[in-house]
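Example record for the data management plan.
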Amino acid sequence: MKHVLLICSLFFLSVSAFSQTGILRGIIRDGKTNEAVIGATVQIMGLATPMGGSTDINGQFELSKVPAGTHTVQISYVSYATKSIPNVRIESGNATVLETDLVEDSKSLQEVVVKAGRTTNTEIAVVTEIKQIKAMAVGVSAQQIQKAQDRDAAAAIRRVPGVSIVDNRFVLIRGMGARYNSVLINDVITPSTEVDTRSFSFDLVPSNIIDRMIVYKTGLAELPGDFAGGAIKIYTKRRPEQNFLDAGVTIGYRGNTTGQSVQTHERGGLNWLGLWDRDQQLPSSFPTNSGTFNNLSSLQRAAYAQLLPNNWALQQTTVSPDIRFALNTGRRFDIGNMRMSNLTSINYAMTNQFANVDQRLYGNSPVANSAAQQYNDAMYSRGTRLGILNNLSARISPLFNLEWKTLFNQLSTTETTVREGQNLNDNNDVRAYSERFENRSILTTQLAGEHIVNELTKINWIGSFGYTGRWEPDWRRARSTRASGTTGPFTIVTPQDPTATETGHFYSRLKELVYSGVANYEHTFGNPTDREPNRIKAGVYYEQKNRDYNARFYGYVPVGENSLTARNSDIGSAFSPANVNGSSGLTLRDGTRDVDSYRGLNSYYAGYVSGDVYLGARTNLTVGFRGEYNDQSLRATIVGVDQRLVSNRIFSPLPSLNLTYKISDRTNFRLAYSATINRPEFREIAPFEYYDFSLLATIRGNTTLTTATIQNLDAKWEFYPSAGELISVTGFYKHFRNPIESLLLLNPNVLSYTFMNAQSAQNYGVEIEVRKGFQESASEFLKNLTVVGNLSLIKSQVNVGDVITAPDLGGEIQQYRGLTSNARPLAGQSPYLLNLGVYYAAPKSGWQGNILYNVFGQRIFAVGNVDVPTIYEMPRHVVDLNLTKTFNNRIELRLGIQDILNQPFQLAEDFNRDGKIGTDVTSQTASADQLRRSFRRGSYYTVSAIYTFGRRVIVP
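Corresponding structural encoding:
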């Protein structure tokens, strides 16, 4: 490699000498603070063809192919006096280094009236913002997202050091579970998008509406305290730089899915928009109380059953390619002295996924891989998403800006699973069906104001409303069996006391309303034009969250002597009116329990104050305090009486400290301490039991969960060798009290999960990030190349304590001793994360490309017990490739290949209980481990065509 670089360098020098040109490079600093000036314009004056450039994040610049001779160099930047340097000599084939500084021009600064906002979505803008943030943070800009062709926030954020993605949508920071992250959109906390877990689904945010994402890894007083992994701020695009209209379309092909013949079911109506027919809903005439319904005669209950549509029959279909469409429009106009702007983005996607899922359940065998049940699920899902973003901005005066931001997503999933396999314990063949439709509507709208009181004082505020709706209308599930080795018909299982794990109809509805108010105050002491003034910040945050969840389950039960005829019928005719007659076939029974519905109310109050104190030219100290009071309650109607099941009221004092010491112009050392918390979600404390058909598992909440507290220590060394380059090393330590984890309950038939508080845990590790450019290279190819990599190594240890408080299978709270191992990692914690990327961009030819790699270490999916081993999620090596070609600055063609290796998603059980999954997961020995679940998604190929009417480019 060294020889190649030497040859390239000699070649470049020879060409340069022949063309009688040289290089001008240097660095521009602030004359008062000696800080780098980012974005300063450097021009060679007096040339027939203008030549110039701008400084990067380190204040550095480089101009190549400067004609040999003596020139005048002019340097300018807003708020600084323009500087001209005469007699700068450029020698043929050599580099001239120029280092100078700029002085402030306070007169010109006072005369500036700004109508346009600052640019925030470029790489330099994001790096500049991060350097100004007092906490340890990393970020991703819209410009970086465009280069990588990321479709949504989930794909984009995994480029961040210490970040990995689960299930292509949930974010893990520093290897910690999604529950330990806090997500804000436009500075407002977002609720969990999932019913059963505390997590935000990042695939809901299309990449073309993102301005930037900032990931905070240490606490600040102005950040919400509910995180331990990181606080993630997503900013949507604000106002357009010019009038524009952009459109793009993407066609996707997934191996193992596109063009395959699969089984599915239809929901009718505007299914392609995520909606469904009204007949999918439970008829309003049904009694609302299970006791009332079950006291009816079997004939009357059968009459109600016949009101439900008999659309159990499956349809064969050929999977079409995925399609995505995006449309962006922006307008700017003035009304008098008021600058108005509007940005609207519409996104639509219809995607498909088929997978053959192999899964096993094991008994209490003395050797591994002795399956009690084994199945193959043919699972096909079709997803749709309609997203609309609208931002209306009014710069009423140079001192007051008003914005109204609205983001809406309408999503649906139509999922069909046909399960074939064996229950070896019962010596039965099994065939089961799941026909599920899920609809989600997510709306967030906010009115925000920014006030400049004077040159020293700023105030901003936000009023926000959020709505989340989730429906599962008529999730149909059926299970049938026959004796193994026989060829007779399968018999549908219909127990007299139906549960959600058996044959029937499941309905659920969730509605959540969130009201938020935010106000922040900032005051600068001394001269506001100082690069590092002393500053004080204060603010308040209020949020009220109201959740209403309702679930109903109706199971089929046999009636009369001829019920076997109905139960031996195929799935399409078994529940016809002729069979569901209430006398000699089947009837319906309500299996709903009172705790299957609950109402949650959470009131959150927070206030903070922080101050920036500059202790000389090299040291900055930020000290802050945040106080949070949270009142969480959960109620349910039990036997007709409204009861409060949970009441958690807690005040949390959250101090923070961030110290930055500038070792040199290119090297910083940072030290941080913060106290944070982790609160349980409504679903985690609700005693409602939910059946996950795909995992063969039930999930139940724990009403005794308490808030976890975390003490965080971080130290970071960062070095910027040259333009666009970075080397950083971060060490961190976290101590948890009452960490919340998922726990497997004792259940001989299916997996049953709940949640628990362990006594304590600790987590420590190191992060290394490297970004390497080749701007000094003589090779044009290498100059266009950037290599990035980041590695996280983490160690964690849990102390469960002597007693675990959790519900049993009947929902009663019990005290367990010796239920699970006391020496293991924290649930959801990966021991390592690795991201690598090589980016190439040739502006002259219009070609861009990158190859990206990601892997995480095996992590606990669910904590085991004395009967069921701990379940781990296994590593996957993921490689992505993207190519882009631009034509005439208006047309772009893009090719993307995701998950080239197509490695399986696997869950494995630690049978030998040595705290890890070994290489042997197949042999029937006592020293082996065993696979629980395995499937492949298939590599994903996309072709995109984008036409840009304006300058803004989008990726659908």
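Summary line stored alongside the record: Residues 2-19 form the longest helix (18 residues).
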